[in-house]
């Protein structure tokens, strides 16, 4: 079976500085992979290069067995970028932004249909934004805009979700809702790759984590455990920068 993503020896240089330094990563269907690591370690660069948004300077990447430049089946991929303003300067409504998640499914011969509308309704419902559907997306708070971007990806009914810090700035109740939504998606066979500093309510869903440090994968396996002060009851966040005591250390 073709896997959603396979990167072999992936290297990226930005401004002539190495940002990814030889990454091997295969994402299997049905996995929920957390990409963790300190600020600037290359997490966003990794997932953007998996999607072909940043070209590799060496190595190889494939989406469903095809290099990104030749990949055509974009409806299989739902991408939630990091902290991007949803409006992009255009005064689009929330519903319009979420509907844009269906674009890869449309063609001259397949205009917007009742099925498309239902998918958009379900996505708005999943992120609790039905009541804001007619509002301008630009008027929303940062966390609400993030939820709209998640809804846009959900609306596309992709096979794989790629999410860059989907819960950054999102309140606790909405994080719980997102975790439930993703759990349902995974139960239906979808794959998830997400960048996260803190897993919060998504932690039980994670089937594997990789930790990047300075452009290299230095840990692969279960998400790193909190330790010391932070391991006390009531302090449940995960420290992505503390992998060194884990048994699955790679280097
Ligand atoms: N367009 C760019 N040009 C030059 N350097 C860049 C560019 N984008 C990112 N970088 C650098 O690449 C490194 C990795 O950035 P990246 O955004 O992938 O990190 P990250 O792990 O996602 O960080 P964060 O946790 O802060 O989101 C950083 O040192 C950053 O300064």
TrEMBL record:
Q: Residue ranges of region Disordered?
A: 218-251
User: Which InterPro entries does the record associate with it?
Assistant: AAA+_ATPase, ABC_transporter-like_ATP-bd, ABC_transporter-like_CS, Metal_Ion_Import_ABC, P-loop_NTPase
Show the PROSITE patterns listed in the entry.
ABC_TRANSPORTER_1, ABC_TRANSPORTER_2
* Keywords of this entry: ATP-binding, Nucleotide-binding, Transport
Xref: Gene3D superfamilies: P-loop containing nucleotide triphosphate hydrolases (3.40.50.300)
Q: Tell me which residues make up the ABC transporter domain.
A: 5-239
Q: Where is the composition biased (Basic and acidic residues)?
A: 226-251
- A molecular-function term among this protein's GO annotations: ATP binding
Pfam families per UniProt: ABC_tran
Query: Which domain of life, per UniProt?
Result: Bacteria
For whether the record's keyword set contains Repressor, the answer is no
Q: Which family does it belong to?
A: Belongs to the ABC transporter superfamily.
This chain's protein is named Metal ABC transporter ATP-binding protein
Species this protein is from: Actinoallomurus spadix
């Amino acid at each position: 079976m073709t896997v959603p993503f396979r990167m072999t020896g992936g290297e990226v240089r930005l401004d002539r500085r190495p940002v990814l330094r030889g990454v091997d990563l295969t994402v299997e269907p049905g996995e929920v992979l957390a990409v963790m690591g300190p600020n600037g370690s290359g997490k966003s660069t990794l997932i953007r290069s998996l999607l072909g948004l940043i070209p590799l300077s060496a190595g190889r990447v494939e989406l469903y067995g095809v290099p990104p430049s030749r990949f055509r089946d974009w409806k299989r991929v739902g991408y939630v970028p990091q902290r991007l303003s949803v409006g992009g300067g255009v005064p689009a409504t929330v519903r319009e932004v979420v509907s844009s998640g269906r674009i890869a499914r449309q063609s001259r011969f397949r205009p917007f249909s009742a099925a498309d509308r239902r998918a958009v309704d379900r996505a708005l419902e999943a992120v609790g934004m039905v009541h804001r559907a007619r509002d301008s997306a630009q008027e929303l708070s940062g966390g609400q805009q993030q939820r709209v971007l998640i809804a846009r990806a959900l609306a596309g009914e992709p096979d794989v979700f790629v999410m860059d810090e989907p819960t950054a700035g999102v309140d606790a109740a909405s994080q719980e809702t997102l975790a439930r939504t993703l759990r349902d998606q995974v139960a239906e066979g979808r794959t998830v790759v997400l960048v996260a500093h803190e897993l919060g309510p998504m932690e039980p869903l994670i089937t594997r984590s990789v930790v990047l440090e300075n452009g290299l994968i230095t840990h692969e396996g279960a998400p790193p455990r909190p330790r010391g002060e932070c391991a006390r009851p009531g302090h449940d966040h995960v420290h992505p920068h503390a992998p060194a005591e884990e048994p699955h250390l790679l280097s």
